[in-house]
Amino acid sequence: MKQLSRRLFFVTIGCALSFVALAARLDKIIDLPLPGAPARFDYEALDAASGRLYINQMGANRVLVYDIRARRLLAVLPGFPSATGITLAAQRGLAFISTPSRIVNALLGQGRLRVLRLTDLTTIASLPAGAFPDGSAWVDYLERLFVSDERGGVETIIGSDPLRVIKSLPLGGEAGNSAYDPGDHRVLVNVQSRRELVVIDPQALVITRRITLPPSCVHNHSLLVDNDVRLAFVACDGNARLLTLTLPGLQTVQVDRVGNDPDVLALDTERQILYVASESGVVTVFAVETGKLKLLWRGWVGADAHSVAVDPASGVAYFPLADVDGHPLLRVMRLVTP
Hints:
- This protein is mainly β and about 350 residues long.
- Helices cover about 5% and strands about 55% of the residues.
- It contains one helix and 28 strands.
- The chain has one helix at about 1-15, and strands spanning about 25-35, 45, 50-55, 60-65, 70-80, 85-90, 95-100, 110-115, 120-130, 135-140, 145-150, 155-160, 165-170, 175-180, 185-190, 195-200, 205-210, 220-225, 230-235, 240-245, 250-255, 260-270, 275-280, 280-290, 290-300, 310, 315-325, 325-335.
- Strand 18 and strand 19 form a beta hairpin.
């Protein structure tokens, strides 16, 4: 009853915030069972070409591989302690998975970046990546991965041929998510403890610019670049706000309210629909228009629905939920518009 009341509260508030929110709805298609006992999920990554969804089950120290076309579990991969971020480099046939160090070793910087070969789902490398590696960004033309170390306040740069740590670049504060801006060939990093957005030259491996974000953003953690419309989005988990920034200028042009504790951002690149998932279970959906966002829907998806991935072919969104009636599941949803 408490969960139902909370859900009705958020749905009511979401609809009341904007009339346009009534023009669309996020419908549940199906709940797909996931194995094991309830355990926290973190990031996920979708390989649209193969139809494989890679889900980090952080609380169970493993990665789940799901076939979204056949709707079946393909593999359960153990050996990924407290798995957080995951980034695919499809052209190299690799997945990069961040595994933070345990609390007792946090000060020693024993986090690892594990490299998974997609063809046979074998871990082929484990590289040092500071204390708490989290989000990462792949720069395809250089074949380099930029990994945010949240506790250590550095950006770890990984080269892929051969797999090795190239450099550890101090940021001066806690590193939130990283994102690659292909239009200007640069890497953007949230330095969340300083309310800064840092710009890195991915070839020279130097910081070229620091942008102070407006006070309307508290703790800028999540980050996504939409190259098609030349916008960047920053989620502020300290005060439930989403910033829209212009590219290349990185000027804030819009501030929107989202669910409390926003976390993962996902973009439907075919339909230009942005999803903002949050720890509070509220998901906010925007249409990305020229230079701005338009609210389409906001509502309750499930407890801890803070992770989302979207299939651009179908427009279907996937939300792993840790505990629904005592079991983990993958909630499959589709945005319906008039």
